[in-house]
TrEMBL record:
GO terms for molecular function: oxidoreductase activity, acting on the CH-OH group of donors, NAD or NADP as acceptor. It comes from the Bacteria. Keywords: Oxidoreductase. SMART domains: PKS_KR. Residues 4-220 form the Ketoreductase domain. Belongs to the short-chain dehydrogenases/reductases (SDR) family. One of its GO terms (biological process) is fatty acid elongation. The lineage of its organism: Bacteria, Bacillati, Actinomycetota, Actinomycetes, Kitasatosporales. NCBIfam families: PRK12826.1-2. Pfam families: adh_short_C2. InterPro entries: KR_dom, NAD(P)-bd_dom_sf, Sc_DH/Rdtase_CS, SDR_fam. The keyword Acyltransferase does not apply. This is 3-oxoacyl-ACP reductase.
Length: 245
């Protein structure tokens, strides 16, 4: 029996890698893209194959629309129309707005928000023809509440939330669901360089008194793309240990 296809951006490390592995364990073939670490991508693909998945790993920049379209076209040609799409690629370039360089603003918006647009747009038509599917965008609690030194990051993630709700309204008639996961502070490469004092302050504000793991986010994604969430669309699921309470 053929397995459904999941497309994942940012699939070589952190949250994206956890999503690749979890969806492979859930019975999907997985096509994912990544920007830099080929060794990490190969390791993620191998772990997915160990779970029984066929894989495609493509190096590209999600801000490059033609490259994303080519990636999706190859995945659809190999595996068929996607059943699930997860936009996990993201970067941060934190700095107070008064000191922020144009390049720091533009790179974050292009990767986080434009990258979400490129992958979802490329995947949408095959899913419309299939009359089924689920998108999960990865936003952030910064997109809900903002963050000091994160005007670029917060703007990109808030944009993803608006994008998610609009896409859900547009495509519900095609039996396509669109939801978002908003992680809090997760143990990834992006957060590894966080100063100890800032980490301690964050933990004191978090009711569960711990950081999340990439697998916590992957579990939420697994639920949202599954039939268990068949009547859920346009929603934002915070995975943050209670930080936004």
């Amino acid at each position: 029996m053929s397995r459904p296809l999941a497309l994942v951006s940012g699939g070589s490390r952190g949250i994206g890698r956890a999503v690749v592995v979890r969806l492979a364990q859930d019975g999907y073939d997985v096509a994912f893209c990544y920007r830099t670490r080929t060794d990490a991508a190969e390791a993620a693909a191998e772990e997915a194959r160990e779970a029984g998945a066929r894989t495609l790993a493509t190096r590209l920049d999600v801000a490059d629309g033609p490259a994303v379209r080519a990636f999706v076209a190859e995945a659809v040609d190999r595996f068929g129309a996607p059943a699930a799409v997860v936009t996990a690629a993201g970067i941060a370039r934190d700095r107070p707005l008064a000191l922020m360089e144009d390049a720091e603003w533009e790179s974050v918006l292009r990767t986080n928000l434009d990258g979400t647009f490129h992958l979802c747009r490329a995947a949408l038509q095959p899913m419309v023809r299939r009359r089924a599917g689920a998108f999960v965008t990865i936003s952030s609690i910064a997109g809900i509440h903002g963050g000091i030194g994160q005007t670029n990051y917060a703007a990109s993630k808030a944009g993803i939330l608006g994008f998610t709700r609009a896409l859900a309204k547009e495509n519900g008639r095609f039996n396509i669901r669109v939801n978002s996961v908003a992680p809090g502070l997760i143990e990834t490469d992006m957060t590894a360089e966080m100063p100890d004092k800032a980490r301690e302050q964050h933990l004191r504000r978090t009711p569960l008194r711990c950081l999340g793991r990439p697998e916590d986010v992957a579990d939420a994604v697994s639920f949202l793309v599954s039939d268990r969430a068949r009547f859920i669309t346009g929603e934002v699921l915070s995975v943050d240990g209670g930080l936004t309470l």
